[in-house]
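Work Package 3 (structural annotation) set out to generate three-dimensional models for the target panel prioritized at the project kickoff. During this period the team completed the workflow that converts sequence records into C-alpha cells, so that structures can be stored uniformly alongside our sequence database. As a representative example, we reproduce one entry of 311 residues exactly as it appears in the project archive.
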Amino acid sequence: MKYIINHDSVSRYSKLEFLARQVVEGFITGLHKSPFHGFSVEFAEHRLYNPGESIKDIDWKLYGRTEKLFVKRYEEETNLRCQIVIDQSSSMYFPLKSKADINNPDKFLFSVYAAAALIELMRKQRDAVGLSLFDQNLTEHTNARSNQLHIKRLYALLEDLILPESGKMNKTTATAAALHHIAERSHKRSLVVIFSDMLDNSADEDEVFAALRHLRYNMHEVVLFHVHDAQSELDLNYENRPYKFVDMESGKSIKINPTLVQETYRKTMLERKKHLMMRCGQYQIDYVNADINAGYHQVLLPYLLKRSKLY
C-alpha cells in the first residue's frame, strides 16, 4: 500500500515566511529581492536622466534643488525559485524500517517531510519550487513551478520513493555529479536546499565541494541539511556486544564489538562534521545539523525562525 504524506503535519509551515538571503530571479511579483529594477515602495537609487527616456520616473523635487534631471530606481520584488534536492541513495534509508513512521523515521522519510513542509511554505508564498532526486545518477529533476498540479506531482514523486524494504538496498551515491547536473540545469538564480547524509567516499570529498562551489558560482543560494542519526552514525551508541554491520550501498559487512572502536570512531566522525561545517562556512552555504532523532519539526522550525530574524 502506498504511503501518503500527512498533510496536517506539514500545513503548519504555511504560516511562516522563507525569504531569500540574496537576490533571486522569479517571474511574478512576490516577497524576494530581484536583481532587476522595477517599481515598488522601496527606493533603491538615483541615476542621471538620459534624453529620450520616459519622464515618469524623474525626481522633480530633486530637480528643484539641483536643477539636474535624475531618475528614481526602485527595488523590484519577485517570487522565489526553490530547488529541493534529496539524496535517495541506500544510506538514506538508515535505520532500515519495515514500516514508514514519521515518529520513528529513517533519514529519507525525515527528508521527505522536511521537503514537504518547505513545499507547503513555498506554495502559500506563491513561490516556485522544483524537486531533484539522486543516487548514483540524477534520477529526477523538475523545473521550479508554482501551479497546483505541479505541487501535487511533487508530493506524488516523494510518496512513491518511500519504498518497501526490498527497494532500499544497493543504491550508491554520486553527489558531485548530481549537483553539477543541477547547477547546469538551473539557469535562474535560485535557492537550492539539499537533504543528504554526505556519506560519499572520502576520496570524493573535494569533488563534492567543487560541485557546491559550482552552485554558488552560478549565484544560487545553497542550504545543506546534513541528515544523520547522531546516536548510531556519529556516536556509535550500541550495546557492549558483537554486531554485524552491513554497508547498505555496497553490501559489504564487518563483524565487530562497537565499544572497542567507539572512541576513535567518534573522534573521526566529529572531525569530519567540523570539516564539513567549516567548508560550508567558507563557501557561504547554510549548514543545518539535522538529527533525525530530534524530529523534523525540531530541526526545520528553529532554522526557519532563526532565518526570519537574520534576513
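The chain has a mean pLDDT of 86.
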